[in-house]
Amino acid sequence: MSDSSTSANDHAAAQAAEHKTVTELAAAYQALAQETLPAVLGFSARLNLLWDMAAVAPSRIEGRVLGILAINPAWGETDLRRWLQQDVLPPRVELRNMVRFLVEQLGPQHDVLRWEAFLIYGAPIVPSPVEHLLYREDQGRRDIATRIFARITDQYGIAPTSYDADVVFQRCLKLMHQFNIYEWQDFQAGHMEPFRSYLFAPES
């Protein structure tokens, strides 16, 4: 028998020795199985973010639940509150239909499956669809963010050593998106305080 044949036989024998029996596999499965799924931490916050962006229901402090029920009473108030407030996932068909409706309001640059996956798993497993779009913003909006950043730090006397510039810059882009600031003239005096509070909020 050649050396290559002997080596192949030894490898096969080693694999067979390491191969688990059906009984062992069944025991391993039972040890890993879960009777219920854990809470999907952050799901409600992500779902509320999508409702905020779609702008088709009142805010959370202005009667969001009743506003959404007016769109689809079949969801039921109890279940809806659990989805929006307690990190409970809706049945998958209900989640898909809700996401399809909300993403339709956002425009063709948003993807239903990407949003659905983000709602369920969150970042970093699924990158935020908002972040994904923001990082693709054109240089013009980045220039505006730089001007806003500079204006706030100058007016409030914020020392450069007191913040992480990259973090603050990305926060600025996010808030510009939420306030629909696409040109410099869109940034008004009334934006200064909310931008300052959000951009320079302490890290949790």
Task: Please sum up the structure shown.
The protein folds into 3 domains: 3-32, no CATH class; 43-126; 139-199. 62% of the residues lie in helices and 0% in strands.
First-residue to last-residue Cα separation: 68 Å
* Weakly predicted, low-confidence segments: none
Tell me how many strands there are: 0
Element string (H = helix, E = strand): HHHHHHHHHHH
Look at the helices and sheets and give the structural class. Answer: mainly alpha
Range of helix content: 55-70%
| Form type | extended
Strand proportion, as a percent range, falls in under 5%
Number of domains: 3
Radius of gyration: 25 Å
Number of helices: 11
Mean pLDDT: 85
Describe, in plain words, how this protein is organized in 3D:
It is a single chain. The protein has 11 helices and no strands. The protein is mainly alpha-helical and 204 residues long. It has 3 domains: 3-32, no CATH class; 43-126; 139-199. Helix 3 (43-54) packs parallel to helix 6 (92-106) and helix 6 (92-106) crosses helix 7 (112-121). The model has no long low-confidence stretch (mean pLDDT 85).
